[in-house]
Specification:
heterodimer, A: 428 residues, alpha/beta, eight-stranded mixed beta sheet, six-stranded parallel beta sheet, B: 611 residues, eleven-stranded mixed beta sheet, six-stranded mixed beta sheet, 31% strand, elongated
């Protein structure tokens, strides 16, 4: 072990933020949240210095190299070597390049948002390098709990609400109870080095407590949002109701767009004609042929009728303009969702939501207050809700919109994080 | 039978002395006093076979024959049989048994005479010229008739004389009526000079049957292990009686040279019968391969425990012992990763077989246990050639990542649990030895320190073991005891409370038990050396840990279980493999019987001593 020099006592926290991807190259909610937090730390008076380290695929495979992206930002060509055990692909760079970076930067806080594309080993190495570093892990998905891409959806498509060796073995018969024990032992042994866990939703927090994280070690802090004014309401024509809906985000089987399209298809034509659904979707082309065909089959007739408008993907900064022309944001996801970014963005821009009634979605939206909860995957329930909500008058809509609590800004979010980081450690 | 009447001498009323006629050349006549047909004696064959003398010929009339040595009569066996050639020539009744064979034990060098006595008191004798039995032609042998069988049954089988005698007799051209047999499998075990032959063989009482290879070596079949063959009994029970029932055999014996055929033969009046033959195919000298074949032989009805004691145990044990002697031929590769402690308190020996990915999970435990880092030497023993190529790189990677020093060893060949443990112990520097399975994982630091403290505090204790839990949290080990299986007449090992919630084991502190598991067992180095380590005579594995504990018990040291020290054991098998008629069951039974043969008294006394 290298000699660890003592840092001056008066220093403000020096925070290394880590993520599995850099939003310059990847637009997932987790990396965007991590990067936003990094920027907020960087700009905060309460923070001495901040850096950002993200795993990246630069077309050369996981060779372990660390390179600068811009000032205070680094990319690490790391990957996962074993997805079940969450072991890093390039293990040497953990003790060479990564420790070199820590030695050079001398952070006293490492705030990591992921271990995908990184592996979990670095958690132990951070604390072994310098036990005084406060190690914080914000959890954005259930990867540590669930071998099925961290979704807690069974391999047969059903939602999963319970992890155990015997349950997991049913999803992955090629693995044994003993394999799952080792997986959990390996991951939990590394998580034991983490000082503080953060979750953006109470739902996810409870899942991790059930899995084994002590309740007093994990807090809920919602992700921050841009500090902007809500959008003005869409101008209504004479007699028009609030009948325009917007779907934003990835199009994959978990996001439930097909449920929505089916609901529209099964409505009476006369009712359907009163509704417009704008689909601001991305990555349909990367889905399986079967799913792509299913979506196309459902959407094409609706597009012909003018009920569905296929707008296409958007850059993050375009979200405001995309939300301007709709009244409601729909999140019909058929999986738990932790804290979908689109919900917070809708709130920030003053657009109430229709969401499925499970997971983080049900936590973030209050039924008939700042939005509507719809039974998950239930086509006729979506039919009914869409029909009802599309008949909302302007006044009714304004009442719902007024109930929206403005999300925390990035600065405020960083502040909450810092208060947790700076809190006295519990005696363990 | 050939007609070998000698030239008839003219009957001579006057001649009664033996000097007038050589009975070996010409029939000797003795007139009938009452005027009837004269009696006659002719010796056709007179040979010496070792210490035996055989004289064959024919006689008519009321005459008693015997052999004498130096003028004194000796005990002579006489057998009469039909001589159609004589009967025809002399117009004797069909049933007449003119032929005779006389056999007596007369040492070589002693002059031999044929003596005869007539009813009317006349006696006579003539010295005989004997030829060695090896000079007997086939025709001459034929004249000895049923003495073929007599001859050989009177001799010690499988002696050189007996073997020679057998070769004298013609091969029978008809099927043997009184013995049947079939060779079903015949193997020669490479490198050992042993054959194992399986089949069935039934013969009427008194029939001589034997095994023979193509090099002329003969083998007694009566030493073979016998099995019931109901199928043979159904076919031949009426013909051959009770022997058809217990006709199955498993024969094994040492051979000289490299024979390629194994035959079963029998001898009757018609000569030597070849009952069955088969080629000797090679069988591996690997004990497991051999056992896999041997255990599959049998109709499944025999008393397996008795059979193991009589057949499978000595055979397989012999092969295991031979295999063990080869271990010394292999070079040993040992490497230290990092700086290993010079004078550790305890050496931890972990055998690796089949997979190595468990090692990293153990590393995570070592790295979080300061006592282990300061006091233990870790030794990983590779026991599987397939693991060796990638291990060096993996070891260095693990060391770079965890910086826990350890030694790893490869002994060139798979040795099994006991052998690998012993090999690890050879590289151990600690006062104590902890034997640990690769799939046992600590649940936190301090467990090993506690176990060492117990051993140090109790000089009467030989071995210490903790509580082990399955992955799902149930008890995997809480001490071991012995239990009696009446269906097999054997003691087996048992894990009481297996699978139960650990809170149900309310014992505390140090608990004396009959034995503890080898998956996590702490012993003093001095005691280990005193009992000469782990016994390597079991097949594949099993019972080695109780054997170890019983060795310590025999040395006056007890086994202790610590319910409050818990580790996880990912053991997949939850029950001893018994109850299915497969190889695994038979291996377990083989091991259990061996274990019992070694330790029965101690097993029973330790059960009484325990709670």
């Amino acid at each position: 072990m290298n000699a660890v020099e003592t840092l001056p006592m008066s220093s403000k926290p020096r925070i290394l933020v880590m993520s599995h991807r850099h939003p310059d190259f990847s637009l997932g909610g987790g990396e965007i949240a991590a990067y936003n937090l990094y920027k907020a730390y960087r700009d905060s008076n309460e923070v001495g210095e901040a850096w950002f380290l993200a795993s990246a695929d630069r077309g050369r495979g996981a060779n372990g190299a660390i390179t600068p992206r811009r000032a205070n930002e680094y990319l690490w060509e790391q990957g996962i070597g074993d997805w079940t055990m969450l072991k890093a692909a390039h293990r040497r760079s953990l003790v060479n390049g990564f420790l070199d970076l820590l030695r050079a930067l001398r952070p006293n806080v490492v705030h990591t948002h992921h271990y995908a594309h990184l592996g979990v080993e670095f958690l132990r190495l951070v604390k072994e390098f310098d036990p005084t570093i406060k190690l914080v892990l914000t959890l954005h998905e259930y990867m540590a709990i669930c071998n099925n891409q961290g979704q807690m959806i069974k391999t047969n498509g059903r939602l999963c609400s319970r992890e155990s060796y015997d349950d997991c073995r049913l999803c992955f018969p090629q693995y044994s109870v003993q394999d799952f024990w080792r997986r959990k032992d390996f991951i939990q042994s590394h998580f034991a080095y983490v000082d503080q866990f953060v979750s953006p939703s109470e739902f996810l927090r409870q899942r991790y407590i059930a899995w084994g994280i002590p309740a007093d070690k994990i807090v809920v802090i919602e992700n921050g949002q841009d500090d902007v004014q809500p959008l003005p309401p869409r101008p209504l024509a004479e007699g028009e109701t609030r009948n325009r809906f917007g779907y934003f985000g990835q199009i994959n089987p978990f996001k439930g767009l097909d449920v929505l399209l089916r609901a529209l298809t099964q409505m009476r034509k006369s009712e359907r004609k009163q509704i417009v659904l704008e689909v601001h979707g991305a990555n349909l082309e990367t889905q399986s042929g079967e799913f792509r065909d299913k979506i196309k089959e459902l959407a094409d007739p609706l597009i012909k009728e003018g009920v569905v408008q296929w707008v296409g993907p958007y850059q993050p900064h375009e979200i405001a303009s995309r939300m301007a022309n709709i009244d409601w944001v729909v999140v019909p996801s058929v999986w738990w969702e932790n804290s979908p970014m689109v919900i917070q963005e809708a709130f920030v821009h003053g657009r109430p939501l229709l969401v499925s009634d499970i997971g983080g979605m049900a936590e973030k939206v209050r039924h008939r207050k700042d939005g509507f909860l719809v039974p998950v995957g239930n086509v006729s329930a979506w039919m009914g809700t869409l029909a009802e909500v599309s008949r909302c008058t302007d006044d009714e809509w304004l009442e719902v919109q007024a109930a929206i609590a403005k999300p925390k800004s990035h600065e405020a979010c960083a502040s909450v994080n810092l208060s947790v980081i700076n809190a006295e450690p519990r005696s363990s | 039978m050939k007609n070998l009447l000698g030239k008839m001498a003219q009957p001579s009323k006057a001649a009664s002395g033996s000097d007038a006629v050589d009975v070996q050349v010409t029939p000797f006549e003795f007139p009938d006093r009452s005027g009837g047909t004269p009696g006659r004696i002719k010796v056709d064959v007179a040979v010496r076979l070792g210490d035996k003398v055989l004289v064959g010929g024919w006689s008519t009339g009321p005459v008693q024959l015997a052999l004498s040595a130096e003028g004194t009569s000796v005990t002579t066996t006489e057998t009469r049989f039909g001589r159609p050639d004589v009967s025809t020539h002399l117009s004797l009744p069909k049933e007449a048994q003119a032929g005779f064979v006389l056999i007596a034990d007369i040492p070589a060098g002693t002059p031999v005479s044929l003596s005869w006595a007539l009813r009317d008191g006349r006696v006579g004798a003539q010295a005989l010229v004997l030829r060695p039995a090896s000079e007997l032609s086939d025709a001459d042998s034929g004249l000895l008739g049923p003495s073929a069988g007599l001859l050989t049954s009177a001799m010690t089988p499988h002696t050189p004389e007996w073997r020679e005698a057998i070769t004298r007799f013609p091969a029978a051209t008809i099927e043997c009526p009184d013995a049947k047999g079939h060779v079903e499998a015949a193997h020669i075990i490479q490198g050992t000079g042993h054959v194992v032959v399986v089949g069935w063989l039934a013969a009427k009482p008194g029939m001589q049957v034997w095994g023979e290879d193509d090099l002329g070596n003969t083998y007694p079949m009566d030493s073979a292990y016998r099995l019931v063959r109901n199928d043979v009994h159904q076919l031949f029970g009426a013909l051959l009686g009770a022997s058809a029932r217990l006709s199955g055999f498993i024969f094994h014996g040492a051979v000289t040279g490299t024979p390629t055929m194994f035959r079963i033969k029998a001898i009757s009046e018609q000569g030597v019968h070849l009952l069955s033959e088969a080629g000797l195919s090679p069988l591996s000298e690997d004990p497991v391969t051999f056992a896999r074949w041997l255990f599959s032989v049998g109709a499944g009805e025999e008393d397996w425990s008795r059979r193991v004691a009589e057949l499978d145990a000595p055979l397989v044990s012999g092969m295991i012992d031979r295999a063990r002697t080869h271990w010394a031929d292999y070079p040993i590769l040992a490497r230290d990763c990092g700086k290993v402690l010079e004078a550790p308190v305890v050496s931890v020996v972990v055998p690796l077989y089949g997979r190595v990915d468990f090692v990293e999970n153990q590393m995570l435990a070592w790295v979080r246990d300061p006592w282990i880092q300061e006091n233990a030497q870790l030794i990983y023993v590779l026991d599987d050639p397939s693991l060796v190529p990638g291990f060096r790189q993996m070891a260095e990677e693990l060391h770079a990542l965890y910086r826990v020093p350890f030694t790893w060893v490869w002994g060139g060949v798979n040795r099994g649990f006991s052998g690998a443990n012993n090999l690890g112990a050879q590289h151990a520097k600690g006062h104590h030895l902890l034997f640990l399975n690769s799939d046992v994982f600590p649940r936190g630091p301090g467990w090993l320190q506690r176990m060492v403290e117990v051993l140090d505090a109790r000089p009467d204790v030989g071995v210490v073991g903790p509580k082990l839990l399955f992955a799902d949290g149930g008890i995997q080990h809480a001490g071991m005891r012995f239990t009696w299986l009446p269906e097999y007449d054997v003691y087996i090992n048992e894990h009481p409370m297996m699978g139960l919630d650990p809170v149900l084991d309310q014992r505390r502190g140090m608990v004396e038990v009959p034995a503890v598991t080898g998956a996590c067992a702490l012993v003093r180095r001095s005691d280990f050396d005193r009992i000469e380590g782990w016994d390597t005579g079991y097949l594949i594995g099993d019972f080695e840990d109780s054997d170890f504990c019983l060795k310590l018990r025999a040395a006056g040291l007890s086994s202790v279980y610590l319910p409050e020290v818990e580790l996880v054991h990912l053991e997949r098998q939850s029950m001893t493999a018994l109850g299915t008629p497969d190889f695994r069951t038979k291996v377990t039974l083989w091991n259990a019987l061996r274990h019992q043969a070694r330790w029965r008294t101690l097993i029973e006394s330790s059960m009484e001593a325990a709670e």
